[in-house]
Amino acid sequence: MMDFTSDNTSGVSEKIMQAILKANAGSSAAYGVDPFTARASALLSEIFEKELAVFLVATGTAANALALGALCPPWGAVFCHARAHIFEDECGAPEMFTAGAKLVGVAGEAGRIAPSALRESLAAFPRGAVKQVQPAALSLSQATEAGAVYDLAELTELCRIAHDAGLGVHMDGARFANALVELNCSPAEMSWKAGIDILSFGATKNGALACEAIIVFDPAKAASLPFQRKRGGHLLSKGRFLGAQMAAYLENGHWLDNARVANAHAARLAAGLAEASGVRMPWPRQANEVFAILPARADAALRAAGVRYYDWSDRDFGEMRRDGEVFVRLLTSFATQAAEVDAFIALARG
Ligand SMILES: *Cc1c(COP(=O)(O)O)cnc(C)c1O
Fold first, then answer.
1. What is the position in ligand 1's atom list of the atom closest to the CA of 64?
2. What are the boundaries of each domain within the chain?
3. Which CATH number fits domain 14-253: 3.40.50.1000, 3.40.640.10, 3.40.50.620, 2.30.30.140?
4. What tens digit of pLDDT does each residue of 198-242 get?
5. How far apart are the C-alpha atoms of 329 and 310, rounded to whole Å?
6. Whose CA is nearest to atom 4 of ligand 1?
7. Is the confidence at residue 318, as pLDDT, over 80?
8. Residue 320: pLDDT above 90?
9. Which among 179, 203, 173 is positioned nearest to 58, based on CA atoms?
10. d(Cα 60, Cα 142) in Å, to the nearest integer?
11. Do domains 14-253 and 255-349 have the same CATH topology?
12. How remote is the CA of residue 276 from the centroid of ligand 1, in Å?
């Protein structure tokens, strides 16, 4: 079954599954004060070269919504890309966990917020104007929902604009590892050194069963999160299994190895498609997502062969699709097989 619908249609990586089994032996303290969780936090501190406050949760939606809840009052505004996961795909969880903050969609190519668009949006919400929500947070997705990656200069500039306006900055890093190996920089450089205050650090899509970390780079700003996580129903009683997943994910660079595999498959897929006649690539591939504009006959051949992937809307991405074409999103993961990629390319070439 060739499945390019998402990176979470894969299973759990062998190393992480083994770590879950190992953690299953015997008893361990409940509610996240176990040695597995302590080990995961220590590894994250080492990797990010900083003392951190770490909160493990089971879903990316919980990580994002709780992180925004820590940054933003109920009367606040969260600025994000108009196609951001928090804006489109979390069923109002960010609004709920902030107790009612407003999300403001900002434009930008390939899911990246453009600095000029951010400045314009901020100007529309003057500080102290009592009829309007007050700017509180900027949320950046790295990699973006279009598979693009902000470079360090772009991240730094956006964080500076936000901080100058008194906002905190959140990063949705559901695909943090895929972006990181693409930029080939350190985790610190792609986060707190660029100005990120709080990070949703994903593991599920890159090999874990269900585990994401909320990372607060200034632990003094994390005082409310233990209560918000518990109140939100995301403090797992058998929290050791989150700790075991995260520790195994990080140990010996497993997370980076998995991301490199996923990205390499995406690179191969994008290169193969770029050479197929009639196929157009809307923007360069960077992480493990490939967007392509296929001629209808190629789409039909792929569908007929049982290949799975999503048609995607190009709204807010420049509306590039013409009549007789299909705009598609293709995801690869650590579990993708090279033969699947090659078969896809062959079918698209017809
Ligand atoms: C998958 C994803 C998430 C997390 O989604 P969950 O299904 O809640 O785990 C968050 N942000 C982005 C950009 C994603 O792609």
1. 10
2. 14-253, 255-349
3. 3.40.640.10
4. 999 999 999 999 999 999 999 999 999 999 999 999 999 999 999
5. 6
6. 60
7. no
8. no
9. 203
10. 13
11. no
12. 31
Residue range 161-187, pLDDT digits in tens:
999 999 999 999 999 999 999 999 999
Pocket of ligand 1 (CB under 6 A): 59-61, 64, 85, 141, 145, 172, 174, 204-205
Q: Please report which residue ranges of 76-170 form alpha helices under DSSP H.
A: 85-88, 93-97, 115-123, 152-164
Name the residue with the closest Cα to ligand 1, atom 6: 60
CATH no. of 255-349: 3.90.1150.10
C-beta of residue 290 within 8 angstroms of C-beta of residue 269: yes
Q: What is the pTM of this model?
A: 0.97
Q: What is the DSSP letter of 157?
A: H
Q: CB neighbours of 266 closer than 8 A, spacing ≥ 6?
A: 147, 285, 287, 288, 289, 290, 330, 331, 332
Mutation pick for ligand 1 pocket among 9, 56, 61 (CB with most ligand atoms within 8 Å): 61
